[in-house]
Amino acid sequence: MIESVDLLLALCIALAAVLYSSVGHAGASAYIALMALFGIEAAVMRPTALVLNIIVASLASFRFLKAGLFRWRALWPFLVTAIPMAWLGGTIHLPSEIYRPLVGGVLWLSAARLLWPRELKVEREASDPPLLFALPMGAFIGLLAGLTGTGGGIFLSPLLLFMAWAPTRQASGIAAVFVLANSLAGLGGQIATLDALPPQLPLYAGAALIGGIIGTSIGLKVNIKLILKLLALVLLIAGAKLIGLY
């Protein structure tokens, strides 16, 4: 039986999916935070968040790819090493007192740069990320994604923008595919936890899907500067979650 608290959580999940999918992310960090606020058991949160991530990232990948907002050369050097490390990270359960605040701080610094008055030169012709940098960085991001139960888009998007390896909307499309692949790998590393998925999952999944439809429509149409501000907001929220402020 669906209770009012389940409906309220589903509504919050839908709103999170709107915000995150508008910038090519899928919202796992927000789903984890929401489930924690609603008293969901820790063993349930990470696999549930990854399932919702896969749903939203699948939709976002399809819509951004269909719109031509994707470049394979900017993705695969990160992805080829990120996928196995995301799987590995999903199998590891480490104390979070050290790495979570550090990662949260990095996300806050990235958000501050996106909000900096000096305009980012992200709409010029994009260059290709060098393999000697992208391969180890992809492994690092994939490991962080697996450890934190996210898809890694919150780490990849700012990097693509700061290094001018993709314009803003294309960075969203690249991040969406990256998130989808890492979420699948991360869930594979947690295959033993799938029996912990809650009975309310269909409700949450439907809410995430609706939110993803709305969010990707926003991301494909709104002003570039607004997308950057939305991305900064996403990074601030995710950073606060990792640091433990809520």
From TrEMBL:
<feature type="transmembrane region" description="Helical">
    <location>
        <begin position="137"/>
        <end position="165"/>
    </location>
</feature>
<keyword id="KW-1003">Cell membrane</keyword>
<dbReference type="InterPro" id="IPR051598">
    <property type="entry name" value="TSUP/Inactive_protease-like"/>
</dbReference>
<keyword id="KW-1133">Transmembrane helix</keyword>
<keyword id="KW-0472">Membrane</keyword>
<dbReference type="Pfam" id="PF01925">
    <property type="entry name" value="TauE"/>
</dbReference>
<protein>
    <recommendedName>
        <fullName>Probable membrane transporter protein</fullName>
    </recommendedName>
</protein>
<feature type="transmembrane region" description="Helical">
    <location>
        <begin position="36"/>
        <end position="62"/>
    </location>
</feature>
<keyword id="KW-0812">Transmembrane</keyword>
<feature type="transmembrane region" description="Helical">
    <location>
        <begin position="201"/>
        <end position="220"/>
    </location>
</feature>
<feature type="transmembrane region" description="Helical">
    <location>
        <begin position="226"/>
        <end position="245"/>
    </location>
</feature>
<dbReference type="InterPro" id="IPR002781">
    <property type="entry name" value="TM_pro_TauE-like"/>
</dbReference>
<feature type="transmembrane region" description="Helical">
    <location>
        <begin position="74"/>
        <end position="92"/>
    </location>
</feature>
<comment type="similarity">
    <text>Belongs to the 4-toluene sulfonate uptake permease (TSUP) (TC 2.A.102) family.</text>
</comment>
<feature type="transmembrane region" description="Helical">
    <location>
        <begin position="171"/>
        <end position="189"/>
    </location>
</feature>
